[in-house]
């Protein structure tokens, strides 16, 4: 068919093939592409290709072209529209879903772009367009539907459209139905599977389109087209189609036709019947069976004759129903049930029905049937009895085959049976009721006979059930119990029907069931109630058929009143749960009878000797309904239940125990007193660590079941809350989480009194390991405050208890070394504590906090959490803030001094805790200051909290006691914060100072003066009162002859002077220089007699000299020399004093010396004094460096060590021999001392190597590493002794060990090759390297195959090659350690690769070896190889000439290929070898290859190559050593060699030396040259002396020419 034709024409094609000109056939001629624009002509042609990918790309290109033309579509050419309309039908049925989707999308865009022009072409594409909406691919159908919906936006438009196109659309559907798989697809290039899929897709869409046209079109107009559609023979073969979708569409089409125009099918009933009644029954109808049944039912109603007369419809349906629902499930069987009722009324024979029922059973038993579908199927099964057998007599055989068998399968399912198993009794009961309604005697007798068989079989199975000793006992009894349940459920279903009274079923079921019960009771009695299956049968009878049990007096037979031993047997038996579960409902309504039976059973259960059995029996009995009141009155039962709970809370794990405890909560058998006892037992177990976990389980059980039980008693409630809060603090995450959840459950219950206030009071007023954590108390306090249950005053700690507990820490003087870290400075020296006071051992919690520490931390955290201090009374506010500040001052000193026995115990965790408290406390004070407004306008006598606090501190700071000192220190900190916050001092400061008289510096107010000086600081620089104080103090200095008891004011005045001078800038002290010089004279006068000065005056004197230096530096005199001598004297005697005493004056003297050296424009006396005492200063500093340090360093010692380290680093030109004692300092506990000692040795060791190198050569003695240095290598760290967290901090012991190794390699760096070998021998003999490498591979992850990734961690080649201790100190500790280890590994490979290789070969872990090799090859080998090649280049340029006969080796180095070419000159040639360095150097051996052999034989040459390789491999992997060995071998071989007198060369053509000697003249000749001489001269004579050479022998004679 050509474009535009409206009918399909068939004809003969070329080549004998049948052709089709339909729009869907693959033989459809292509459209004319000649007028199509060049932009899209290629894509249009590609639409004719077979490849789906090509067509998909072409459609996308055309789609992009159309969209690019704009929305008006004026530029869209008609040839494009015409061509696509012709191609569209084929594209809409393409094998590729994506092609079909794009085809519909392109059509939609064409319709948008050219609506009117496309409307004219509508008949040409409307059919495939509408058919596309029924495509099975959702994306394709959506694309076609969206295109259609965009134009049919209203229902009226849609109806008009369908009516307009209905005729053309139905023509297309008919045309599509006429297609075959051969016309749609080319069998030459398409598989049968693909061609069938396309065919079924086309006919399926055709059927759906035709059905939709019937629903939306005009049937009168469509009638002619439908007639043509029905004439297509292919239509009637679709009931046998392989495609379920097509079959379903076919049945739906016929169903629609029967509903709308059934008379059209009347002329074709034969075809319809053949398709639906005959063909469809023989073919699988998976997916379409339900639709088939629906159309059959409607067809039967319209044309019952379609079933024919030769066979009964049941016979025709037999094969179909045997296949089951075939996926239709419940709807299938419902439709089948309706079909059965619609079939023509013809009574079939019993044999036909039996055969049909057999097929039906087979279909029901199909494994694909669902539970609901199978239930509906059984209803249909019963329907067959009602519809076809209601008047036919039934034999016992018939019932056995078709009903009794299913009844047996219901009662006693046999998995191996092919019969389906009914799950519910309704179907079975209904079927038996239908059969029992027959009036003929034969059927009634058969019914009675079958039920008697069923009852006998059940009784027999019950009697033969397995005994308790058998392996399958429980399974056997469970099966009997299940069968009994089904039996009596079925019996009850039948007996409760009204119509049963007129049937024989009533009598036979009653009699049979009674016989079953008698058998069960007899079996129980005979076997001591062990067969619980029989007991379950009786339970089922009681539940389903109580009337039957009453009529047979079953209860009296089961519980005889006069046989008490029977109750004991029942209580101990497994039948107990079944026999008592419904006891309250089956006791005949007599309350006393029920209670008597139950009480007897309880007493029997409690009397059982086996406790687990007694628990199990009691659990069953208390679970009987309506027994709670009776249970609470039984004393024995109450005691038993309480003891069970106690056992459970203490970890009892007997299986029945938990069930019994759960039952007591579920059924309420416990009295009130028993419940309280149970709660107390659980809480007691919760407080014992060994039983905490089981107690948690028990508590969880109670809170989940009966949470109100634990809130009734206030005392128990508080205990429980405290215990749960303590558990939330445990490190065991599982346990703490459970405790937290239980606490939430407990809080959900209403209580009379909030327990939190009592808990806070108890746990803040004590400090024990069992005390609750502060964070826990904070959580509870905040929760309580938010709820408003407790006033804020009750939440904060008691200030009285706090002060009393704090006072015991204020009896002794503070550590004097704190003067270095605190702004109070030398005021620490003035505190008059009781040195002999016996400090009580304070209680501490699990975190090491004392009571004041707990209270202070609690208060700080509470304030930081948003709790307002204004919520408590004013006086209480003042007390809390004062105690908070006082505690913070003491805590900061503890933190700085690292002292033990303070508010917190010592340790890293405690330090972090103290720091956290100090931060929170400071933040709280700052917040309070901010709330009080700007203090510039204060009168300092107001009622604000801060003003009252200052005045209170002023009062408390009077005196020289430790308490007064810390009150002053707190005042100083408070004033500093005020100045920082408000940016200056108050306007009335001067008036305030005068009013208070602080600057008069009376003995009792010394601390207050110090507090003001340090608190206001520079803000006092303009104060007249301060200037007056400073002048007075300086003037007083010359009047003090010393610091003896006769001058008690000397030290306080000196301390205040230093603090006062600190207020001013350097050189800006408002005192005339003359007075300062007089003070300087006095200071140096004291220094002249250093023995008379204690450590306090010594420190303050050095401070004073340094402070007056800026103003007196131009003064000439002996003062400076005296000051320097005094500093050196202090350093030399420092080792004699205690650390806490020496630290102040060492620090002050170092600062003084630093000030002297850094003074600007010093006078000549000062310069001469510094120069003349330089050596003494150096020696004293080094002595200071060697003083042993404590393991735990305080902040003061760290400051001193840092200052000392800086001073030591500035010492110039230190000789190694002067540093013999410094090696020990490398192992110091102080990092700063380590750094200083390492810095000295790091410079001295390489500098001393030149002398050592020369001494080794001159003295011909082996060099040795210093013994002190080697001793440091003995303390190798064990990785197992450190946790990962400890190692991450780079412990000082590890740092010392690694720095010692660095010093070893410092010695290597400038040592000669010979000295390096001696050093290596030292390391080998001591086996020092193995511990280092073991530590390295463990820390850097090689041992676990997770080596440190240097790229990811940011370590560059520069890091690998060098290590700077100064830069490393600024890095995190772990990175510092890793850097040092990485650098050491590099130095090992560089200087002692041979030792590393030996360790590698001996390493027992293959995983470690592989990881080390790959790590080394990736990060280190390139650097080591580069260094080795550079070393070769350097050696080549500096080769020694030796004895004059040794030539220089010609060396060429290629770093890119890692190759060295070495040639030794011989005549005009060179003996050349090549050294190939492997990637994994130095682990893998260097390959030595011959390039050119000269002067020696092959075997000797090869031996030299092997020797060179061996020297490198076993001689510390040195390439230079190998080259030197090569040069030495070849030079020795050529030594003494003379030229051949024939060729005048040493090397012959065959690369040999002259080896033939003349016996007369003793000259050597080449063998080859001599032979040629003999041949050319014709004589056997020496070329020089002409004497005969006959010793060549027979060998020569054989080689002579024949003519001789």
From TrEMBL:
<dbReference type="GO" id="GO:0061630">
    <property type="term" value="F:ubiquitin protein ligase activity"/>
</dbReference>
<dbReference type="GO" id="GO:0005829">
    <property type="term" value="C:cytosol"/>
</dbReference>
<keyword id="KW-0808">Transferase</keyword>
<feature type="domain" description="RING-type">
    <location>
        <begin position="1540"/>
        <end position="1586"/>
    </location>
</feature>
<dbReference type="GO" id="GO:0043023">
    <property type="term" value="F:ribosomal large subunit binding"/>
</dbReference>
<keyword id="KW-0862">Zinc</keyword>
<keyword id="KW-0677">Repeat</keyword>
<comment type="pathway">
    <text>Protein modification; protein ubiquitination.</text>
</comment>
<dbReference type="InterPro" id="IPR057030">
    <property type="entry name" value="TPR_Rkr-1"/>
</dbReference>
<comment type="function">
    <text>E3 ubiquitin-protein ligase. Component of the ribosome quality control complex (RQC), a ribosome-associated complex that mediates ubiquitination and extraction of incompletely synthesized nascent chains for proteasomal degradation.</text>
</comment>
<dbReference type="InterPro" id="IPR016024">
    <property type="entry name" value="ARM-type_fold"/>
</dbReference>
<dbReference type="InterPro" id="IPR054476">
    <property type="entry name" value="Ltn1_N"/>
</dbReference>
<dbReference type="InterPro" id="IPR013083">
    <property type="entry name" value="Znf_RING/FYVE/PHD"/>
</dbReference>
<protein>
    <recommendedName>
        <fullName>E3 ubiquitin-protein ligase listerin</fullName>
        <ecNumber>2.3.2.27</ecNumber>
    </recommendedName>
</protein>
<dbReference type="Pfam" id="PF13639">
    <property type="entry name" value="zf-RING_2"/>
</dbReference>
<keyword id="KW-0963">Cytoplasm</keyword>
<keyword id="KW-0833">Ubl conjugation pathway</keyword>
<dbReference type="InterPro" id="IPR011989">
    <property type="entry name" value="ARM-like"/>
</dbReference>
<dbReference type="InterPro" id="IPR054477">
    <property type="entry name" value="LTN1_E3_ligase_6th"/>
</dbReference>
<keyword id="KW-0863">Zinc-finger</keyword>
<dbReference type="GO" id="GO:0008270">
    <property type="term" value="F:zinc ion binding"/>
</dbReference>
<dbReference type="Pfam" id="PF23009">
    <property type="entry name" value="UBC_like"/>
</dbReference>
<comment type="similarity">
    <text>Belongs to the LTN1 family.</text>
</comment>
<comment type="function">
    <text>E3 ubiquitin-protein ligase component of the ribosome quality control complex (RQC), a ribosome-associated complex that mediates ubiquitination and extraction of incompletely synthesized nascent chains for proteasomal degradation. Mediates ubiquitination of proteins derived from mRNAs lacking stop codons (non-stop proteins) and other translation arrest products induced by poly-lysine sequences and tandem rare codons. Ubiquitination leads to CDC48 recruitment for extraction and degradation of the incomplete translation product. May indirectly play a role in chromatin function and transcription.</text>
</comment>
<dbReference type="InterPro" id="IPR011016">
    <property type="entry name" value="Znf_RING-CH"/>
</dbReference>
<dbReference type="InterPro" id="IPR039804">
    <property type="entry name" value="RING-CH-C4HC3_LTN1"/>
</dbReference>
<comment type="subunit">
    <text>Component of the ribosome quality control complex (RQC).</text>
</comment>
<dbReference type="Pfam" id="PF22999">
    <property type="entry name" value="LTN1_E3_ligase_6th"/>
</dbReference>
<keyword id="KW-0479">Metal-binding</keyword>
<dbReference type="InterPro" id="IPR001841">
    <property type="entry name" value="Znf_RING"/>
</dbReference>
<dbReference type="Pfam" id="PF22958">
    <property type="entry name" value="Ltn1_1st"/>
</dbReference>
<dbReference type="GO" id="GO:1990112">
    <property type="term" value="C:RQC complex"/>
</dbReference>
<dbReference type="InterPro" id="IPR039795">
    <property type="entry name" value="LTN1/Rkr1"/>
</dbReference>
<dbReference type="GO" id="GO:0072344">
    <property type="term" value="P:rescue of stalled ribosome"/>
</dbReference>
<dbReference type="InterPro" id="IPR054478">
    <property type="entry name" value="LTN1_UBC"/>
</dbReference>
<dbReference type="Pfam" id="PF23280">
    <property type="entry name" value="TPR_26"/>
</dbReference>
<dbReference type="GO" id="GO:1990116">
    <property type="term" value="P:ribosome-associated ubiquitin-dependent protein catabolic process"/>
</dbReference>
């Amino acid at each position: 068919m050509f474009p535009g034709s409206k009918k399909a024409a068939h004809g003969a094609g070329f080549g004998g093939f049948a052709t089709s000109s339909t729009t869907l056939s693959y033989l459809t001629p292509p459209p004319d592409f000649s007028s199509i624009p060049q932009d899209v002509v290629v894509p249009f042609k590609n639409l004719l290709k077979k490849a789906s990918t090509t067509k998909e790309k072409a459609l996308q290109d055309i789609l992009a072209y159309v969209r690019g033309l704009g929305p008006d579509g004026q530029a869209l050419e008609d040839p494009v529209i015409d061509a696509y309309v012709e191609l569209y039908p084929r594209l809409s049925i393409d094998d590729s879903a994506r092609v079909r989707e794009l085809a519909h999308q392109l059509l939609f865009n064409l319709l948008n772009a050219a609506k009117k022009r496309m409307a004219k072409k509508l008949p040409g594409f409307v059919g495939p367009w509408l058919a596309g909406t029924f495509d099975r691919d959702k994306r394709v159908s959506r694309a076609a539907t969206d295109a259609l919906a965009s134009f049919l936006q209203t229902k009226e438009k849609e109806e008009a459209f369908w009516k307009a196109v209905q005729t053309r659309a139905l023509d297309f559907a008919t045309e599509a139905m006429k297609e075959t798989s051969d016309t749609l697809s080319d069998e030459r290039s398409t598989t049968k599977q693909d061609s069938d899929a396309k065919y079924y897709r086309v006919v399926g869409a055709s059927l759906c389109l035709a059905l939709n046209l019937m629903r939306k079109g005009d049937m009168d107009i469509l009638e002619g087209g439908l007639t043509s559609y029905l004439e297509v023979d292919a239509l009637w073969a679709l009931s046998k189609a392989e495609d379920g979708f097509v079959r379903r569409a076919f049945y739906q089409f016929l169903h629609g036709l029967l509903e709308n125009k059934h008379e059209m099918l009347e002329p074709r009933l034969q075809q319809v019947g053949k398709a639906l009644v005959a063909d469809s029954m023989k073919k699988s109808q998976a997916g379409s069976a339900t639709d088939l049944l629906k159309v059959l039912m409607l067809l039967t109603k319209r044309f019952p004759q379609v079933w024919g007369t030769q066979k009964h419809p049941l016979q025709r349906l037999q094969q179909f129903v045997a296949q089951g629902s075939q996926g239709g499930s419940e709807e299938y069987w419902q439709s089948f049930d309706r079909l059965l009722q619609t079939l023509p009324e013809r009574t079939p024979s019993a044999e036909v029905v039996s055969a049909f029922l057999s097929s039906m059973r087979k279909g029901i038993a199909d494994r694909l049937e669902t539970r609901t579908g199978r239930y509906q199927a059984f209803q249909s099964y019963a329907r067959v009895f009602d519809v076809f057998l209601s008047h036919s007599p039934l034999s016992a055989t018939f019932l056995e085959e078709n009903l009794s068998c299913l009844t047996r399968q219901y009662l006693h399912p046999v998995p191996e049976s092919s019969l389906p198993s009914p799950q519910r009794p309704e179907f079975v009961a209904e079927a038996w009721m239908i059969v029992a309604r027959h009036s003929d005697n034969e059927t009634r007798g058969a019914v009675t006979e079958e039920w008697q068989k069923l009852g006998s079989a059940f009784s027999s199975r019950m009697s033969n059930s397995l005994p308790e000793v058998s392996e399958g006992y429980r399974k056997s009894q469970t099966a009997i119990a299940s069968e009994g349940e089904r039996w009596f459920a079925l019996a009850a279903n039948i007996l409760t029907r009204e119509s049963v009274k007129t049937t024989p079923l009533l009598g036979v079921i009653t009699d049979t069931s009674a016989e079953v019960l008698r058998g069960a009771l007899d079996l129980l009695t005979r076997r001591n109630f062990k067969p619980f299956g029989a007991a379950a049968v009786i339970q089922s009878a009681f539940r389903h058929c109580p009337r039957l049990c009453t009529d047979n007096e079953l209860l009296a037979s089961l519980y005889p009143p006069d046989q008490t031993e029977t109750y004991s047997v029942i209580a101990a038996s497994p039948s107990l749960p079944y026999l008592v579960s419904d006891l309250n409902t089956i006791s005949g309504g007599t309350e006393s009878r029920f209670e008597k039976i139950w009480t007897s059973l309880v007493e029997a259960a409690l009397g059982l000797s086996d406790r687990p059995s007694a628990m199990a029996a009691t659990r069953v009995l208390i679970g009987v309904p309506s027994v709670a009141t009776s249970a609470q009155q039984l004393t024995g039962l109450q005691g038993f239940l309480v003891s069970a709970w106690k056992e459970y809370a203490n970890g009892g794990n007997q299986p029945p125990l938990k069930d019994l405890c759960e039952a007591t909560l579920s059924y309420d058998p416990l009295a009130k007193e028993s419940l309280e006892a149970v709660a107390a037992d659980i809480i007691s177990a919760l407080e014992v660590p060994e039983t905490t976990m089981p107690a948690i389980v028990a508590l969880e059980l109670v809170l989940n079941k009966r949470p109100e039980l634990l809130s009734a008693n206030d005392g128990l409630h508080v205990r429980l809350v405290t215990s749960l809060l303590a558990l939330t603090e445990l490190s065991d995450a599982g346990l703490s989480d459970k405790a937290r959840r239980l606490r939430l459950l407990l809080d959900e219950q209403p209580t009379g009194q909030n327990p939190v206030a009592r808990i806070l009071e108890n746990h803040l007023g004590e400090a024990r390991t069992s005390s609750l954590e502060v964070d826990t108390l904070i959580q509870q306090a905040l929760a309580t405050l938010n709820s408003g249950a407790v006033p804020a005053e009750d939440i904060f700690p008691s200030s009285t208890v706090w002060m009393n507990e704090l006072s015991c820490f204020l009896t002794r003087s503070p550590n004097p070394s704190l003067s270095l870290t605190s702004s109070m400075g030398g005021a620490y020296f003035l505190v008059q504590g009781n040195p002999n006071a016996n400090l009580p051992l304070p209680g501490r919690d699990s975190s090491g906090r004392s009571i004041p520490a707990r209270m202070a931390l609690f208060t700080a955290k509470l304030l930081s959490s948003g709790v307002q201090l204004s919520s408590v009374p004013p006086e209480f506010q003042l007390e809390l803030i004062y105690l908070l500040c006082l505690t913070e001052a003491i805590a900061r000193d503890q933190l700085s001094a690292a002292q033990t026995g303070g508010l917190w115990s010592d340790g890293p965790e405690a330090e972090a805790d103290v720091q956290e408290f100090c931060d929170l406390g400071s933040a709280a004070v700052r917040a309070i200051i901010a709330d009080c407004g700007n203090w510039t306008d204060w009168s300092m006598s107001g009622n604000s909290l801060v003003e009252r606090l200052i005045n209170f501190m002023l009062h408390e700071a009077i005196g020289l006691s430790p308490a007064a000192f810390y009150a002053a220190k707190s005042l100083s900190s408070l004033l500093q914060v005020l100045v920082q916050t408000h940016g200056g001092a108050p306007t009335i400061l001067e008036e305030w100072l005068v009013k208070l008289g602080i600057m008069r510096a009376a003995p009792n107010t010394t601390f207050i003066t110090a507090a003001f000086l340090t608190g206001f600081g520079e803000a006092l620089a303009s104060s007249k009162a301060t200037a007056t104080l400073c002048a007075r103090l300086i003037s007083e200095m010359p009047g003090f002859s010393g610091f003896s008891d006769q001058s008690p004011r000397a030290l306080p005045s000196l301390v205040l002077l230093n603090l006062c001078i600190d207020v001013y800038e350097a050189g800006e002290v408002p005192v005339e220089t003359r007075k300062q010089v007089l003070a300087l004279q006095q200071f140096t006068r004291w220094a002249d007699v250093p023995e008379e000065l204690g450590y306090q005056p010594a420190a303050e004197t050095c401070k004073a000299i340094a402070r007056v230096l800026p103003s007196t530096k131009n003064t000439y005199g002996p003062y400076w020399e005296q000051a320097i001598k005094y500093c050196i004297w202090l350093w030399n005697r420092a080792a004699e004093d205690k650390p806490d005493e020496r630290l102040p004056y060492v620090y002050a003297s170092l600062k003084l010396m630093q000030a002297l050296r850094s003074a600007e424009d010093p006078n000549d006396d000062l310069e001469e004094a510094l120069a003349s005492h330089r050596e003494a200063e150096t020696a004293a500093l080094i002595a200071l460096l060697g003083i042993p340090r404590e393991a735990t360093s305080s902040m003061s010692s760290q400051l001193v060590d840092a200052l000392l380290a800086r001073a030591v680093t500035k010492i110039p030109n230190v000789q190694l021999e002067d540093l013999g004692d410094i090696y020990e300092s490398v192992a110091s506990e102080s990092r700063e001392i380590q750094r200083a000692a390492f810095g000295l040795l790091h410079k001295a060791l390489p500098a001393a190597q030149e002398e050592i190198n020369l001494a080794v050569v001159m003295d011909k003695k082996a060099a040795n590493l210093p013994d002190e240095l080697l001793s440091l290598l003995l303390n190798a760290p064990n990785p197992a002794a450190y946790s990962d967290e400890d190692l991450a901090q780079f412990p000082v012991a590890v740092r010392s060990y690694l720095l010692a190794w660095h010093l070893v390699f410092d010695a290597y760096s400038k040592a000669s090759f010979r000295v390096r070998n001696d050093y290596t021998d030292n390391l080998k003999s001591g086996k020092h390297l193995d511990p280092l490498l073991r530590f390295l591979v463990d820390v850097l992850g090689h041992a676990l195959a997770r080596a440190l990734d240097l790229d990811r961690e940011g370590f560059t080649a520069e890091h690998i090659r060098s290590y700077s201790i100064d830069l490393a100190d600024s890095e995190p500790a772990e990175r510092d350690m890793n850097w040092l280890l990485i650098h050491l590994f590099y130095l090992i490979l560089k200087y002692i690769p041979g030792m590393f290789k030996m360790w590698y070969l001996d390493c027992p872990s293959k995983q470690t070896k592989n990881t080390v090799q790959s790590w080394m090859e990736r990060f280190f080998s390139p650097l080591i190889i580069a260094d080795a090649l550079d070393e070769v280049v350097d050696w080549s340029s500096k080769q020694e000439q030796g004895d004059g006969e040794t030539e220089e080796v010609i060396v060429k180095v290629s770093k890119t290929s890692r190759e060295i070419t070495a040639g030794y000159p011989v005549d005009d040639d060179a003996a050349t070898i090549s050294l190939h360095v492997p990637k994994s150097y130095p682990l893998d051996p260097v390959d030595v290859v011959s390039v050119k052999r000269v002067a020696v034989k092959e075997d000797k040459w090869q031996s030299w190559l092997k020797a060179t390789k061996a020297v490198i491999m076993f001689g510390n992997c040195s390439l230079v050593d190998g080259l030197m060995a090569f040069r030495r071998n070849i030079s020795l071989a050529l030594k003494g060699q003379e030229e051949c007198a024939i060729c005048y060369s040493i090397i012959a053509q065959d690369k040999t030396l002259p080896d033939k000697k003349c016996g007369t003249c003793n000259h050597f000749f080449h063998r080859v040259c001599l032979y040629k001489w003999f041949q050319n001269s014709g004589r056997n004579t020496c070329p020089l002396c002409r004497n005969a050479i006959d010793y060549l022998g027979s060998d020569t004679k054989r080689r002579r020419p024949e003519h001789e």
